[in-house]
Amino acid sequence: MSTSTLGATTAAIVPTIASTVKPSEAVQRNPFIRLDAKDNVVVARIEVPAGVAVPSEGVTTLQPVPAGHKLAARFIAKGEPVLKYNTVIGFASEDLPPGTWMHSHNIAFGDLVKDYRHGLDYVPTKLLVSDERARFQGIVRADGRVATRNYIGVFIVSHGAATVARKIASFFDEDELAAFPNIDGVVPFVHEQGAGMERSGEPMELLRRTIGGYIRHPNTAGALVIALGEEHNGLDDFLAHQKLATGPMLQTLVIQQAGGTKKAIAAGIEQVRNMLAAANGVRREPVSAEHISIGLQCGGSDGFSGLSANPALGRAMEILIEHGGTAMLSETSEIFGVEHTLTARAVTPEVGKKLVARIDWWLRYNEGRDTQINGRVSPGNNAGGLANVLEKSLGGAKKGGNAPLMEVYEYAEPVTQHGLVFMDTPGYDPVSATGQIAGRANLICFTTGRGSCFGSVPAPTIKLASNTPMYARMTNDMDINCGVVIDGEATIDQMGRAIFEQILRHASGEQTKSEALGVGLNEFVPWPLGISD
């Protein structure tokens, strides 16, 4: 079991995580949430019919307001900024009387004037001394790296070897691994690139960096790398580019040289079998939480995500960073519009400018396209109460809390800086999480309001629900219910501390819901530089 400094603090609220679906009397009496005194909208906790008086705001609903959606708390003139968390999320497209349901039909997307304030608001994190830091049961590799899981990976340099890799990995089922209880599995990491593509340049660079990052990942105990034999991402070139040397725990296989599919599968099985004993020879031991690196993700967001799951996860990341750990914010197109809140607290102006440079790249890449960074969110996000990318970004950025921004990385680059960092990725969850794991995230925390069934290996995914009704519907997929914040049963701080405690348990080997379901074996998706949303 893990040990930490926070057990007594969070124990009182953990039993409330499985809250009932029925709204409490307090919620029914006050069905709207005011997020900031200067806001001109409030957010519905539950679905509210038309004609309902809202005493706290002195208005009456003029139309039905779905849960997670917004209500005009006063008259908002056409063209006036719409404020949520005292931040502009758009502009009124018409005169809006008090009590109006506010959504994408009457909130216009527009250009904002941003004050980047590069580094001017930087405040260093007060780190706990080593003896005060939380600990978890980690796997310490011979070179000092710390793992949260223990996998053998079967990798391919091109899609031409995908079937062979899958068949080799599938051979090692529970029966085959029964004698090796310390191995979490043998996993195929297949993709659709490596052949029929440019032999050099950024796409090939990203592919090689991603595969290499997974091979070097602390959670990868051993690796078999397979090639067909004639791909553009040649096996020898890949190994040389990534400075990878073969040995007992990093072996290669060329299908054409092995004599074809059947012989290659047999040879690959034998190569993996020869790694099992060494991979199994590990044990967990107490290590500092400074070795935890979290990839932050959100998907299927709703109007509650930015009110409960995201800020609660942000509070957990502030705690992790105080303990010396790392939080990796990503999904560049989903921080657009609020990136100035990150650049202002960058450790140096240069770090802030790196982030703006990545935003500028995305704007050029998506110019003239019907994509998220140009305003439109997904149908699920929209139905959940998010009017546009500005509102989504406002909530999404909260996953990093208020910690200072310490560094900005390109996709799948090795992350060596502790604290809050940013990695440039698309908003598409599998591609984004793949880059984070390649960058050495050893856990993924994934917030969702509509419901996500995402999972990942070799770094497992912890899923956090933004609202209790969805958590109740999808309890087999959700690890944590942050809906208790909306229900009035926990504060953001209490929820954040509970999340941090659960992170320590999962880092120590406790299975996440996605792991128990076997989800994650098909979510290795290196960025093909064609996914723009």
TrEMBL record:
<protein>
    <submittedName>
        <fullName>Altronate dehydratase family protein</fullName>
    </submittedName>
</protein>
<feature type="domain" description="SAF">
    <location>
        <begin position="39"/>
        <end position="108"/>
    </location>
</feature>
<comment type="similarity">
    <text>Belongs to the UxaA family.</text>
</comment>
<dbReference type="InterPro" id="IPR044144">
    <property type="entry name" value="SAF_UxaA/GarD"/>
</dbReference>
<dbReference type="InterPro" id="IPR007392">
    <property type="entry name" value="GD_AH_second"/>
</dbReference>
<dbReference type="Pfam" id="PF20629">
    <property type="entry name" value="GD_AH_C"/>
</dbReference>
<dbReference type="Pfam" id="PF08666">
    <property type="entry name" value="SAF"/>
</dbReference>
<dbReference type="InterPro" id="IPR048332">
    <property type="entry name" value="GD_AH_C"/>
</dbReference>
<dbReference type="Pfam" id="PF04295">
    <property type="entry name" value="GD_AH_second"/>
</dbReference>
<dbReference type="InterPro" id="IPR013974">
    <property type="entry name" value="SAF"/>
</dbReference>
<keyword id="KW-0456">Lyase</keyword>
<dbReference type="InterPro" id="IPR052172">
    <property type="entry name" value="UxaA_altronate/galactarate_dh"/>
</dbReference>
